[in-house]
Write a structure and sequence with these properties.
Structural class of chain A: mainly beta
Oligomer: heterodimer
Largest sheet of chain A: 22 strands, antiparallel, barrel
Distance between the termini of chain B: 62 Å
Strand content of chain B: 35-45%
Number of helices of chain B: 3
Structural class of chain B: mainly beta
Helix content of chain A: under 10%
Order of helices and strands of chain B: HEEEEEEEEEEEEEEHEEEEEHEEEE
Shape of chain B: globular
Largest sheet of chain B: 12 strands, mixed
Number of helices of chain A: 4
Chain lengths: 775, 329
């Protein structure tokens, strides 16, 4: 009996010493130098063959089924992987710090599998910011959106543009989030630069396939961008002097290890358009700022801020007159976020934020004579204000089963047209003011997501419910989402995804004989929300010891209840009846196949993206009701990017892009009436512009200095000077002159030649230079 | 050494500048195959009541469309059969008049176009589809009051614009459409657009029209007619202001010349309004702009079935005001 009891005691004691019970491990993954959290880092139990990834805030939670044998691999692109034996872990919370650098080959293989093969994800692209910085660029500044444009399924929409055209969708169908807050207009300088300052960004992810239920309100994609939190350990900074813009970023601890700040600012270096003489003034700037506080070992608080403005206009003053005309637009956003770890199983984030987009057009004119004085001012303001509160919970319910729940309430205020007109003549004031009343709309949504990992099979199944109410109209939406990932072998998986999406707000862009302006308008009684259904199927593989990752995905996307301006209609001054200016009940039919081959490690990195796709639209009252190619229909799109680290002080990269020419509507007939030549078109988008292709090159010379690092970069856009189409136009060139005599003076009059079609190109061979520094 | 560095830096800068300048705005002629299409008849005709000055000079101009790159710019059709109907009754076959290039109405003082009647034309021409169109003449909307401020606005080139303040009563229960034109020399033909003055306005129901050029388009001239509808003031008394460019001359000072200005308020049919606004907007959209590219292609509205152009009526109220020679400053 004594021996029996002693044996039991010994067995229990040895179990206590050598074997832990299964448990849930949670914690954060950080950059060891800066203390920045790493979102999307892989956490993989090599023994159990089960893993997870850190969330947007760098937090992970994983079930350790066999603590005695579990080997946890922590990996992230650009960082040395770390393996931790679970037996060495004595707490249920573990914060891991990864060092920047290259990993050992064996670890790379496994890390690669986790990044692409073992995840229930569809159409997700992550671009490491430090790799983006090496890419060729325009005007000396790299741009995160231009980098995404060089991946399959994503187009720019035209030469030099910063739009995201994802799988045949329109620019407004992308949910663009900066620290969880949606932005509505993300371009500077006519689209040649985006509003995202790469120096202020820590992570960027684009989801162009079926996005999980936690995202909603858009049809085509989610672009999630995370601002840097700020270096927790030491003061640091970086900056750049470029051809078009210059910028500076400063970060550092407020209280070391507990709180930090980050602030960055960017503006144009030179007066654009006035560089070579008179012209309108064009200026832009943006500011990113963030505060980060570790309030306790369970609580973190973030305060984020962004403000960016573009302004173009002119001002002229003479002895008698003064005239000023200006257009100004931009975004402002602020967000307060609170992360709370309730337990190892339960993580919560709550965000309270605002976002504002506005477009202002102002005109002022003064005349001053002896007897007459006249002062006129006309201002038009349009935009959208959002206030929202959201909360997301992530709960590890069972081994391999995470449950995510959340809600979001947004109060949209649309101010489509605030117009103020003032006229004072001879000192007598006449004020006339007219405006369209603000429109308030509420959008409430709740979602549930189930993340199941059965080792050989992963599933993300979710349901999102949205309620949109405006005036006396309510729209409900139930949006199922499912993503399946089936492991066929260790290095290859098969994926399927299905999603339904609804978009309650519409973007109407004014184009024609005027300045482009974006009008965001809510769904109304007569104009309902747009919706989409997308199926995709694909495979993902990592091979050659994890050096290469390959994904091949095919999709079919149908869109319904789309709207478009009726021919010749615009929004200016017609906001009372904007619904009558648009065609509704439009349909979209998009399909395609995307191949994405990446090499992420080694001296040589890069990717090849090939997309075969079609996109069509159909409206009852457009194109005689017949289906027509969408403006961004591009049957073949190829991107080839190659980066090479020659040595520590030299690296270069090439990027070659090819795309079938965009569809275009061309006139086919003409006639004379009232002394003018009038052109007629037959079908919408029935012709194509010439194919687009160009080769870019970048050469970087980084070097360490006493005070930090510096980098000289030379970038050449369009090395072989391809004349790519920017737009087509008709013209009659002067081919000969006729000489007549008028009052004894010889007058030479040009005789216009035949009408011909011409192409305008924008950028040919274009070198840029930049100097950047870090300290 | 210093000089060599300076020279090589200068050369480098110039080369860079040359590349930069040479890479922007390149043009390339595009050869493109346009599918063959059958030409269509182009009709141009407006009806006004016979009592108005223009009522004595009306006719139908008939032309043909061509392929977009055809070198022939203007085809007059002189051998068509043009039938005129009134309230569905056949009236007359119009004859081509080579003196004015029009198929003319052969009517006397008591047979001219009248308000409220429906007029239609049917045209046959060899090689073309038969075309048909109909219209009517609306009621006159009378100008209640018109005042002119001769020196109201000076542009940045020192040119003077005069202001017109116009009051009229918009009839309720109808959708009305209007056109304003101004002629500054009464010896000119009132219905020849060549004689119309340039106009602009700050009224939102005018500037809000799709054809009205944005002030940011510095290359576009002011329109010669102001078109608008009554959506924002249906059935109300309306007072609006606009500006016209008077005849003026410079000696040591600037003067507005003595002139009689004719202000014409036209009550136009919907087809006239749709044609004129789309016509003007189409002309603007056909122009190239280096910043925004070509405007969106737009087909001009036509009420000519199987053809292009316009057959539309309008009525008008005219006020003529004498402006004496006025010194500006």
């Amino acid at each position: 009996m004594k021996i029996f009891c002693l044996s039991v005691i010994l067995i229990c004691f040895s179990s206590f010493l050598n074997g832990q019970e299964p448990f849930i491990l949670s914690g954060y993954v950080f950059d060891s130098n800066t203390g920045e959290v790493l979102s999307g880092a892989n956490v993989f139990d090599q023994h159990a063959r089960r893993g997870t990834s850190t969330n947007f805030y760098g937090f992970f939670s994983i079930y350790i089924s066999d603590p005695n044998n579990a080997m946890l691999l922590f990996s992230y692109v650009g960082y040395k992987d770390t393996i931790i034996h679970a037996a060495d872990i004595h707490e249920k919370n573990l914060n891991v710090r990864l060092q920047p650098g290259l990993s050992m080959k064996e670890i790379t293989i496994e890390a690669s599998r986790q990044s692409i093969v073992n995840r229930a994800e569809s159409g997700v692209i992550r671009l490491p910011v430090n790799e983006v910085s090496k890419l060729p660029n325009l005007f000396g500044e790299v741009d995160i959106i231009k980098a995404f444009q060089q991946t399959p399924g994503v187009q720019s929409g035209g030469e030099g543009k910063s739009e995201l055209i994802v799988r045949g969708g329109s620019p407004d169908q992308n949910l663009i989030l900066l620290d969880d807050v949606p932005l509505y207009y993300v371009s500077h300088f006519g689209g040649f630069l985006s509003v995202f300052n790469v120096d202020a960004i820590s992570d960027a992810k684009l989801i162009k396939g079926s996005f999980p239920a936690r995202y909603g309100g858009r049809l085509s994609s989610v672009l999630e961008i995370r601002m840097k939190d700020g270096n927790m350990n030491q003061f640091a900074g970086q900056g750049m002097l470029g051809l078009i813009s210059s910028k500076i970023m400063l970060e550092g601890p407020i209280v070391k290890g507990t709180s930090s700040y980050m602030i960055s600012a960017r503006r144009n270096t030179l007066p654009i358009f006035q560089f070579f003489g008179d012209g309108p003034k064009y200026n832009f700037y943006d500011i990113n700022a963030k505060l980060n506080l570790i309030a306790s070992n369970r609580d973190r608080v973030y305060l984020s801020f962004y403000n960016g403005i573009d302004a173009v206009g002119f001002e002229e003053e003479t002895r008698l007159t003064y005239m000023k005309q200006q257009a100004r637009w931009g975004n402002t956003m602020g967000a307060l976020r609170w992360n709370r770890i309730f337990s190892n199983r339960l993580f919560a984030n709550t965000t309270f934020a605002f976002s504002r987009y506005h477009y202002l057009n102002l005109f002022e004119n003064k005349n001053q004579l002896d007897t007459i004085s006249r002062h006129l001012q006309n201002n038009i303001l349009t935009g959208i204000n959002d206030w929202f509160l959201k909360s997301d919970l992530s709960y590890t319910l069972l081994p391999g089963y995470d449950l995510k729940l959340g809600y979001k309430s947004i109060r949209h205020t649309f101010f489509p047209n605030h117009q103020e007109f003032q006229l004072a003549v001879r000192g007598k004031q006449q004020v006339r003011e007219s405006f369209k009343p603000d429109i308030t709309a509420w959008n409430h949504s709740v979602y549930v997501e189930n993340d199941l990992d059965l080792r050989w099979f992963q599933i993300n199944a979710g349901l999102r419910y949205s309620l949109f109410s405006v005036s006396e109209k309510r729209y409900n939406s139930l949006e199922p989402r499912i993503i399946l990932n089936l492991l066929l072998a260790r290095d290859i998986s098969l994926k399927y995804a299905y999603s339904q999406n609804r978009q309650f707000i519409h973007l109407l862009s004014y184009s024609g004989a005027g300045m482009p302006a974006d009008y965001w308008m809510p769904s109304t009684k007569s104009i309902g929300p747009a919706n989409s259904i997308q199926h995709s199927i694909g495979m993902a593989s990592s091979f050659m010891d994890g050096v290469f990752e390959l994904s091949l995905e095919a999709y079919v996307k149908t869109l319904n209840d789309l709207i478009a301006f009726k021919p010749g209609k615009s929004l200016v001054g017609h906001l009372d009846s904007w619904e009558s200016l648009v065609e509704k009940d439009g349909k979209g039919h998009n399909y395609g196949t995307e191949l994405f081959l990446q090499k992420k490690t080694g001296k040589s990195t890069g990717w090849l993206g090939i997309t075969w796709s079609r996109a069509f639209r159909e409206f009852n009252e457009l194109n005689q009701g017949k289906i027509f190619p969408y403006s961004y229909d591009r049957p073949l799109d190829i991107s080839l990017v190659w980066n090479y680290d020659w040595n520590e002080n030299v690296n270069f990269s090439f990027a070659w892009n090819y795309g079938t020419g965009y569809p275009i509507t061309l006139y086919t007939e003409k006639y004379m009436i009232e002394g003018e030549e009038i052109y007629v078109f037959d079908k919408i988008n029935s012709f194509r512009m010439r194919d687009y292709h160009r080769l870019d090159f970048a050469l970087n010379f980084p070097a360490k200095t006493r005070w930090g690092e510096r980098n000289w970069s030379i970038s050449i856009y369009n090395i072989y000077n391809r004349r790519n189409p920017y737009y087509y136009f008709y013209d009659r060139k002067i081919t000969e002159f006729q000489t007549t005599e008028v009052n004894g003076v010889q007058v030479h009059t040009g005789i216009p030649g035949d009408l011909k079609l011409y192409q305008r190109s924008l950028f040919g061979f274009f070198p840029s230079f930049g100097f950047s520094f870090k300290f | 050494m210093v000089n060599n560095n300076y020279i090589s830096q200068s050369i480098f800068f110039c080369a860079f500048l040359a590349f930069f300048l040479s890479s922007c705005g390149k043009e390339l002629e595009i050869e493109i195959e346009i599918p063959a299409n059958n030409p269509k008849l182009v009709v141009n005709s407006t009806l006004v009541p016979y009592s108005l000055p223009g009522g004595k000079y009306l006719g139908i101009e008939l032309g043909s469309s061509t392929s977009i790159f055809d070198t022939v710019t203007h085809n007059s059709i002189i051998d068509a059969s043009v039938l005129l109907f009134k309230n569905n009754d056949f009236i007359d076959t119009l004859q081509y008049n080579p003196d004015n290039g029009l198929y003319s109405f052969g009517y006397g003082p008591f047979e001219g176009p009248s308000i409220g009647d429906k007029y239609a034309i049917q045209i046959f021409a060899e090689g073309y589809e038969q075309v048909w169109a109909e219209t009517k003449i609306p009621e006159e909307v009378e100008i209640i009051e018109a005042n002119i401020i001769p020196v109201a606005f000076i542009n940045d080139h020192g040119g003077v614009w005069s202001e017109v303040v116009l009051t009229f009563d918009d009839p309720g229960n109808f959708n009305n459409y209007y056109e304003i034109v101004v002629v500054t020399d009464i010896s000119d033909y009132l219905y020849d657009p060549e004689n119309y003055s340039y106009l602009f306005s700050h009224e939102s129901f005018i500037t809000g029209e799709s054809y009205y050029p944005s002030p940011l388009r510095f290359d576009l001239k002011e329109p010669k007619r102001l078109l608008f509808n009554d959506n924002s003031f249906n059935g109300e008394d309306v007072t609006l202001s606009f500006y016209y460019y008077p005849p003026q001359f410079m000696t040591d000072k600037r003067f507005i010349s003595h002139h009689i200005v004719s202000v014409q308020l036209r009550n136009i049919t919907e087809e006239y309004y749709l044609f004129k606004t789309s016509f003007l907007q189409s002309l603007y959209n056909q122009k190239e702009d280096i910043l925004y590219g070509m405007g969106e292609p737009l087909n001009v509205f036509s009420n000519i079935e199987n053809g292009y152009g316009i057959f539309a009526g309008f009525n008008e109220s005219i006020v003529q005001i004498l402006i004496p020679e006025t010194i500006v400053d």
